[in-house]
Specification:
The chain has one helix and eight strands, in the order αββββββββ. It is α+β, with helices and mostly antiparallel strands. The chain has two domains: 108 residues; 115 residues, Immunoglobulin-like (Sandwich), CATH 2.60.40.1400. The strands form two sheets. Strands 3, 4, 5, 7 and 8 form a five-stranded antiparallel sheet that branches. A three-stranded antiparallel sheet has the order 1-2-6, with no helix packed on it. A hairpin with a 2-residue loop joins strand 7 and strand 8.
Length: 237
């Protein structure tokens, strides 16, 4: 073999050896870089998973807190509503007591009020019948020296029907035939009953007239008109 051939052959060997070495180094570097990149990605994934786990736990905590606050708010709302109802009932009861005190004061201590026969009240409340109502008429006398008074009562409902003024005497609105309204008392008397409103009739006022007798002599006539107002609580006999 000639020297030139040996040199050429040796140069080719070194070239390929160098090429193989470069490829080996490149492969190793790529493998190492890939492992490092994979490890970095794994760390990032673990961090993200940890963050997601923390966020999920925080979300559950906030959801539970929100539920607790919702329950507390509902409890406070119900408590406030109960308190409001209690206050309203207390005010209604106080008003009722004041009315009762005033009523008995006028009966038992008339010197504090005006003397004479009084048409005290005419209360109305719905009954179980359709367009049916119950009424309660309260009469009293406020004389210092009380004697039995007697007489008759006329009650008239005043309103409109089909756009025109209309009046109905109370006995005409009672289903069963009834006797005229009468009274006889020394201190006070409550007269009650039921009636049915005619269909299409819109009541506005109630007119009450009383013819009063004492010691078999006519003491006088008295008239009072009440606005039509429906009580929220049915009248209890």
């Amino acid at each position: 073999m000639l020297p030139d051939d040996i040199r050429k052959t040796w140069s080719a060997f070194k070239f390929y050896s160098l090429l193989i070495l470069i490829l080996a180094i490149a492969s190793y570097s790529a493998f190492k870089y890939g492992n490092q990149h994979y490890a970095k990605q794994q760390n990032e994934i673990e961090m993200l998973q940890h963050t997601m786990s923390n966020l999920d736990a925080e979300n559950q905590r906030l959801t539970q807190r929100l539920n607790v606050l919702g329950v507390e708010l509902e409890v406070q709302r119900l408590a406030a509503l109960n308190l409001q109802n209690s206050i309203s009932e207390g005010l209604q009861r106080e008003t009722q007591l004041q009315q009762e005190i005033s009523f008995y004061q006028r009966v038992m201590a008339p010197e504090l009020k005006q003397e004479g026969f009084v048409i005290e009240a005419f209360d109305i409340a719905p009954s179980v019948s359709e367009r049916g109502f119950r009424y309660e008429l309260v009469l009293m006398q406020q004389d210092k020296i009380k004697n039995v008074v007697k007489g008759t009562i006329e009650v008239t409902l005043i309103g409109s029907e089909q756009g025109k003024p209309k009046r109905y005497a109370l006995p005409s609105l009672v289903e069963a035939e009834s006797d005229p309204l009468t009274f006889s008392f020394k201190y006070f008397q409550v007269i009650n009953g039921e009636f049915i409103l005619p269909e299409g009739f819109a009541p506005e006022k109630i007119q009450v007239k009383a013819e009063v007798f004492q010691f078999r002599r006519k003491r006088g006539d008295l008239e009072r008109t009440f606005d039509w107002q429906i009580e929220q609580i049915p009248i209890i006999e």
